[in-house]
Each structure stands twice: as C-alpha cells, then as structure tokens.
Amino acid sequence: MTRQRSRPPAVKSSAELEAEEVEKIQKFKFKALELNKKILESAEDVKKPAVKEPTVPEGFELQIEKRLQDRQSTKKPQEGEEKPHTFKSQPLPKKILERVVGLPEKKVLHPTVPESPAFALKKRIRMDRKVEEAKQPAPFKVPPVPHYGLPFQPQLPESHHVEVCPFSFEERERERRALKEKKLEDMRNEEVPQFKAQPLPDFDTVVLPEKKKLEPTKPEPFKLLIDQRGAVKNSRWEQMLKVEQKHQEEAAVFKARPNTVTHKEPFQPKKEPRAPVGLNSSTAVETFELSTERRARERQEYERLASEKEALRALMEEEQRREEEQREKEEIARLRQEQIHKARPIRHYKPVAVKKSDVPLTVPQSPNFSDRFRL
C-alpha cells in the first residue's frame, strides 16, 4: 500500500538549488562603469587642508557656587555654647480671684426700625413704553365656492371680551407689617438672661469619686452544634450496637439440623481407569500452545480486519465519487434549464369600473380668525 501512494516531493534536490542560484546570478550581472580621467588629472593639484586652531576650554559658571559663596559671606559667626533652658513659672494674676476676667461685655442690640420697601417712589422716572403700531393683517380672499344646490351662509365669530378687575398688594403688606411689629414687641418684652459665674473650686481638699467594683465574669458552658450532632451520632451508634448484639444472640442459639445421612445411598468406591502402557500412571497429559502459533493467529486476525477496513474505505470513496458525479450532472442540467429563455404571457387584469362617490358634499365655512391677542 505504501508503494501505491503518490505524493510530490516537498524538498528540492541539491542540483535544482544550484541551477536556480546560477540562473539568479546570470540575471543580475555586475557591469563596472568607465574610469573618469578627470580624477587622475586633478590628483596632482591637491591642496593641503588648513589647520584649525585647537579649542580653548572654558570653565562652567554654575549658579550653585555663587549661592554658596553668598551664603558663607552672610552667615553670622557662631557664638559660644547656649545655656540650658530653665523653666520659670509666671506669677498668678490677682484679678482672677477678685472678679470674673476674660468675658466680654454683652452688647445691647437696639430693635430694628421697620421701613416700607421702596416699590414706587415719586422721584422715580417713569419711562413710557413705546407702543408699536399694530400692522393690519392682509385681507384674506376666499375663492368663490361653486354652487351645489345649498346657499352659502357664513358664521360670524363671537366677540370675547376680558373683564379687567383691579388688584393691589395693600392688604398683604398690611398683614406682613402687623406680623413684624408683633414679633418685635415679643422680642422687647423678652427677659434678658443674667450671667452668673460658678464658684471657684476648693483646692485644699481633694475628693476622688468612689471606685466602682465590677463583679467577676461568670463563665457559662458553650452550646456548640458539634456537641448536639455528636450526641445524636452516639445514640444512633448505641442503637446499631444493640441491634447487632441481638442478631448475634439469635444466631448463637443452637438448632439441630435434620438427619439426612440415613436416607442417602451408601458410598461405593469406583475403580480408576487403567493408564496406557509405557506411561506413568500419575502423569496427566495436557495440550500446550506455542507463542509463535498464537502470534501467527493474531497476525492473521489483524490482517483480516485491516483488509476489511481497506475494502470498506475503498467502497465508501467509490460511493462518494459516484454521488459527486451525480450531483455535478444534476447541477449542469439545472443550469442548462435555467439558461433557456421562456417568455411570460400577457396578464389580463380586471377592468376598472368607475363608481359614483357616496361621500356627502363639503359644507364650506369661513375661517375663524380670533382677534383676542390683537393690540
């Protein structure tokens, strides 16, 4: 089967690779340009290049060096060692013992004098608004309505006039002013709280608060779920032990079996067959199988299965090939059938019947232009 398989070689031989390289080299041949004779003629008049002066190094001007010099010049000379600082308390001011010190005097606030808001002043200049002249709308001409048997009766729009009612804020301002005066009167009649300082504590006797004695914590046993589960498991285990012990006690009870020996046939000894001549009577002959025979049988079975699989695969490939050919033939026949032009017949539609409309005639009305928002 390996000899029957045909596959193209994936790797080219060395001779083919060499031939390809030679072909590439022949395609790209190097062609040298002619020598320019002017180069040789101008070589005699070569001038020596001028020597440049060497670079003179300059030092860096860093700002940090300047700042260090300024700092050293302005630094004060260090004085002798400073003396250790000693704490010295300030004397107690005697004003604290005589009267209250540190609280500011309470300022008496005068009540607010109400004033009317300047909504309208006599001095305020009134600017008359310019009333724009209202442009009269263009006349609307209605096209004449044809006569259909009913005379045209236009309806005039009804006139809507808005009644103007005077209003003012005087009553609301009067109520607000009365509430404000009442609140101010309540604030005037309110008693002013007097300041009373607390007495100075006595520093001669020290009174400590009573120490509370805490009771020791009483331990309580834990109520764990594992204990509850363990108790249930122990009770189940004890019950199982009791059941098993009961079964063992029932099995340990002796119960005699019925006598069946007296009813059986008596034992009769049988004579053994005689061994063949030339062989020991104690030797038993058994057949044996060589590994070569077993492997040969397994090989035959493997070859049979392989040949069946190969035949089945060839049969399936043949069936698939026939189906592909049949599908191609059907596709070609369908394409040929579609390419044939077939003219469609002329369609005959139902004739259109003109029917008189049953919709009633429109009653014309004049447009309702409102003059409500006109100036």
From TrEMBL:
GO terms for biological process: regulation of mitotic spindle organization. Residues 63-85, 262-274, 291-304 have a biased composition (Basic and acidic residues). Pfam families: TPX2, TPX2_importin. Residues 170-217, 288-362 form the TPX2 C-terminal domain. Its main location: cytoplasm. It is found in: Cytoplasm, Cytoskeleton, Spindle; Nucleus. One of its GO terms (cellular component) is spindle. Keywords: Cytoplasm, Cytoskeleton, Nucleus. Residues 1-119 form the TPX2 central domain. Residues 47-94, 249-304 are annotated as: Disordered. Belongs to the TPX2 family. This is Targeting protein for Xklp2. The lineage of its organism: Eukaryota, Metazoa, Chordata, Craniata, Vertebrata.
